[in-house]
Design a protein that fits this description.
Layout (H helix, E strand, L loop, with lengths): L2 H42 L4 H13 L3 H14 L4 H13 L3 H14 L4 H13 L3 H6 L7 H20 L2 H6 L4
Helix pairs in contact: 1-2, 2-3, 2-4, 3-4, 4-5, 4-6, 5-6, 6-8
Amino acid sequence: MSREAILVLILLIGLSIFGFFRFRDIKKGLHDKAIADFTTAIKINPDDAEAHYNRGISYSYKDACNEAIKDFTKAIELNPKYVEAYNNRGNVYFDKGLYDKALNDYNKAIEIDPNFAEAYYNRGNVYSIKGLYDKALDEINPEPESMHKLRGVRYILLINYINEITNESFITKHRLN
C-alpha cells in the first residue's frame, strides 16, 4: 500500500472516530431536548400518558433509570392498559438488576395483550438470567409468527449457555469442593 493511501486511511479512521464521538454527543443533546419538550407538554397537560411515556423513553436512553421508572409509572397510572409502558418499565428494572419487578411488568403486559411478542421475549430474558432455561423456552407463546423467531433466539442462547458451562475454564472456576 502506498504512503498516500495509508495517510488517507489514517485520516478516514480518525474522522470516523471523531464522527462517532460527535454523533454520541449529538444524540445525548437530542434526548435532552426531547426531555425538555415532553416536560413542557406535561406542564400543559399533566394527564398526557403518552408524554410521560415518551419522556421515560428519553430518560432510559440516558440511563436515568429512576426518572424513567417514575415516568413509566405515571403513564401506567394514567392509562392502566399501556402495554408499552409496562414493558419498558420492565426493561429499566431489568437493567437495574431488579428481575422480579421486571418479571411482574412483563407479565402484566402479556396479561393486557397476549400477542405482545416483545414482552414474551423480555420475560424469557429474565428467566434466562435466573437460570430457568427450560422456562425461558417453554414460556414463549408460539403465536404470533414473530414468536417463532424469538424462540429461535432462545435456542441460540441455550446453546451458548451449554457451551459456556461445558467449557473447561468455567468448570474449573465453578467446581464445587
